[in-house]
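hey so u asked for the seq, here:
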Amino acid sequence: MNAIVVRNLTKYFTPSKKEKKKGRARNPSLESRKQGNNSIIRAVDHIDFEVKNGEIFGFLGPNGAGKTTTIRMLTGILKPTNGEILIFGQNFWNNPIKAKQIMGHVPEEANVYMDLTGLENLSFIGELYGISKKERISRAEQLLKKFELFEKRHLKSKKYSKGMKQRLLLCMALMSNPKILFLDEPTSGLDVQSSIIIKKLIKDYNKNGMTIFMTTHDMDVANEMCDRIAIINRGKLIGLDTPENLKKLKQEYQAVDFYFTKEAKESELENLSSVKEVRKIRDYYHIIVHDLNDGICEIIEYIKSKNLKVKKINTYEPHLEEVFLKMVNGGDDY
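ran it, structure tokens below
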């Protein structure tokens, strides 16, 4: 069963009188999604997707694309204008309280309770969920140990660093043992140590069966952590696949760079059936091939026949950031 199913999800906003008077939307990137005379802004425009149970699902898009609005609808903060949200097969809005009980959520601009200690923050959240005192203290201490905050558990959280606060927010979201965890920019602006700790623990919880729905502007984080990625732009879904498949989808060509110990003949390399083009660049040969596997195998055979020695081989692959920019700027649907 899918953890989340979204069908025809749509959210329209009506600008305030002040915004109408100024003749602009709340977010300038929403301008092209207005209808009529500045009367309606389409923040999320009839999107469909599924999130598999137990996967890390990345939700990417430029600022103002509709990411936060979508998460707010999925977590019950906003009610959709149209569309359906199923959480483990159940319509969210038929029983929103029950749906929220199996969710954890860390918004991008969330903050901890500054005048409470780390332990008190978690105990307070546990109390809100109706967890017994003994159980919530036990859960809180376990979480604080996992997130390397136990030694600071009696320190008021206003004295925590940004990275420590982000870790504490994750602990707060995990106090209820959620089945689905929503994370909005979980590693944004963090120091290296906090980022590494958070990424490792997200992976650990996912390995234990938790479904993770996350947004990020860090393409390296998305590429490293996500099983599948959806890309939203101007309220519409324009891509959804694994990071590898998305990169293949927009890959202009396949190539391999060979560094030889001595000069090779470009004309001979170009005559190989799997080779489309050869470019000599400084001390290496950039060889564009029809198929990467066939190309490498045939080039290796050529190298053996000519008694050439290889110093280094690099394969060319587009970065997720390149793919993201092409899809967003090009506006191609998947």
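The first strand starts at residue 2 and ends at 13. The radius of gyration is 25 Å.
lmk if thats what u needed
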